[in-house]
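hey so i finally got around to running the thing on that chain from the lab meeting. sorry it took forever, my laptop kept dying and i had to restart like 3 times. anyway pasting the input first so we r on the same page abt which one it is
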Amino acid sequence: MELFNYFRSSASYRVRIALALKGLNYDYRAVHLQKNEQTAESYAAVSPSRLVPLLRDGGHVLTQSLAIVEYLDETHPEPPLLPADPLGRARVRAIALDIACEIHPLNNLRVLRYLVHSLKVSDEDKDRWYRHWVETGLEAVERQLAAQPARYCHGDAPTLADITLVPQIFNAQRFQCRTDHVPNVMRVFDACMRLPAFEQTRPEACPDAF
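ok and heres what got predicted. didnt touch it at all, straight out
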């Protein structure tokens, strides 16, 4: 397998965590978003969307981090990343989507660049935008976790929800977002970071980090 990713991409980090939890080896292919390497024709030949992450498994190309994680879970079932029961799977997916759909799209690099370059938003206001959507979005996750407390987002083993949560907290910390108002979120984050799969795949540990 080959993983095309960028060390600071939270979506890429999700897939790195899943691969590590599954104990799967892969070739790391760096695509530097700040240098616009994702827009190069050579990468467009691999990824029509020109986004990361992208996983190439043999002759198959997979995109979108949550779809990739579920593919890995179905093709390599142990350890499972989704609960066995329908209600549990729905809850885990809901928490993951609260982050991947409600927080992350408002704060990815393309949006931030548009705010600054096209709408002429100041760097200070851009950062305020970022912190607002992260802080309010995490409140929704906090309510989900508080309603059904556990070691991780759902139960005593990490799931798709934890794989999605941890990279978002890394981004929140990088932009100095408040997290004191989400104690359950941070408790789960700390529990995850005690696991090698989360710690060893963190952005700073990637080959293209500098």
